[in-house]
Amino acid sequence: MKIAVLSDIHGNHVSFQACMEHLKKEKIDIFVFLGDYVGEFPGIRQSLEMIRSLSQERTCYVLRGNKEDYQLNGLGGEHPEWDPYPSTIGMFRYGAQSLTGELRDYIRCLPITDVVKVEGFPDIRICHGSPRDVKEGIYENAEINDEIFREIPENYILCGHTHRVTFLEEYGKTVWNPGSVGVSLDGNPTARFLILHGEEGDWRPEFFSIPYDTEQLIREMKEEGVYEIAPYWTRVSEHLLRGGTMNYLEVLTLAVKIAREKYGSCEWPAVPEDCWAEAYEKLIGTYA
User: 9-45 burial, b for 16+ CB within 10 Å, e for fewer?
Assistant: First the structure.
């Protein structure tokens, strides 16, 4: 018995395809997708179509992540008052344009948590962030873990959202996070996923880190015009694809701080582009 676990594709169909090519060599019985198919890269539609097609042929568990929730909640919709803030709102809008009505209906029907049941093996709770909140990450030694885990009857948990490969054992629970297929944050720009091996009535994790053509993805980003749609957000994406470690939240947080110092206030998503530019230059460097 083998279960392939993939999370946080974020529209990176290039890395997703590399993962699936590798998994063709494995005898996978079940595929688990933990959410965030929408995101920073041009292959949102391709990634979702690949998952839908696979679900028609194989046993798949497919969850909804926070990025899908953002789309369903209208963040990518028409908000003319947000037009001056493309680095903040641009990729939400790109995501909305990428989702046809059929794909939107598809993600609307996806659950935020489920349980993988395989006869002869322990049940596995699956979620994007935590079983109670798609935006709540599970981190090692976090005080909130006791509260989160108390609500879960299963002893095994699969989660995503943090983009960090995780294997922790706390409060009688075992938690595995495969890391991100689409955008790693640790300076190693590879596609991450996990295979659970069912052996002698228990689960054994095997973590994978697969190289892929990041330069192809960067070329597609330029061809699709996402640098114009979300200027500094996309530059952070390129930074990460080239092995950087400064993430979106760090740059956004500094941009908000700069805006409050310059203009007296700043509330998301009204983060001025000049503040994004200053934050980017301070944390990453002048964009070539």
Answer: bbbbbbbbbbbbebbeeeebebbbbbbbbbbbbbbbb
**pLDDT the model gives residue 159:** 98
Longest dimension (CA), the chain: 62
Measured distance CA(176)–CA(43) in Å, rounded: 26
How many Å apart are CA 99 and CA 44, to the nearest integer? 8
Q: Could you read off the pLDDT of 190-216 as tens digits, one per residue? A: 999 999 999 999 999 999 999 999 999
Say what the pLDDT of residue 100 is.
Answer: 87
- Cβ count near 178 (within 10 Å): 28
- Residues 256-276 pLDDT 10s: 999 999 999 999 999 999 999
Confidence of residue 288 (pLDDT cuts 50, 70, 90): very low
pTM over 0.90: yes
Q: What is the SS3 assignment for 280?
A: helix
DSSP 230: S
Question: What is the Cα 23 distance to its own chain's centre?
Answer: 19
Specify whether the CB–CB gap between 233 and 40 falls below 8 A. yes
Beta bridge partners of 33: 6, 62
* Pairing of the two strands 166-170 and 173-177: antiparallel
- Report helix, strand or coil for 73: coil
20's enclosing H/E stretch is helix 13-23
For residues 33 and 159, the answer to whether their CB atoms sit within 8 Å is: no
- At residue 122, what are phi and psi to the nearest 5 degrees? -65, 145
